[in-house]
């Protein structure tokens, strides 16, 4: 906290996600600043979100987190996040439009996803792959056959791979 308090300016990043096993939501917050011309980065923590992800609630949680670490919003020169509409509303209200830097990886993913959506060939292939994955996941016999083929090709029991179904809102999933 001492180093953060002494910094002249900060850049913050944060992301919200849902852990699917227990179906809980979290926000992770990081901070970046210069100390004697050396870049310092750190995690302010991962915090559970207990309510619906409205802009008002996310802004309150983020404000509480920054205050807990003595991060002055006036000293934040940039905020890097994904392009989620709720997150962008929070960013505009807390930091102002000029300080928002959209996450490059998220932006590239949106470009790729939009391009795939416009390609009839790509959407047809992706749709067929999804149906195959769903079939294998529903069928014990098909799952057994997939494991058998992997073992025949040199994979040891316990190291065989399972098929996963992509999730459109999770980048790098498709």
UniProtKB/TrEMBL annotation:
Name the InterPro entries on file.
Answer: RNaseH-like_sf, ZnF_BED_domain_contain
Q: Where in the cell is it found?
A: Nucleus
Write out the entry's keywords from A to Z: Metal-binding, Nucleus, Zinc, Zinc-finger
Q: What is its main location?
A: nucleus
The protein, known as = Zinc finger BED domain-containing protein
Q: Which GO terms describe its cellular component?
A: nucleus
- What PANTHER family does the record point to? ZINC FINGER BED DOMAIN-CONTAINING PROTEIN 39, ZINC FINGER BED DOMAIN-CONTAINING PROTEIN 4
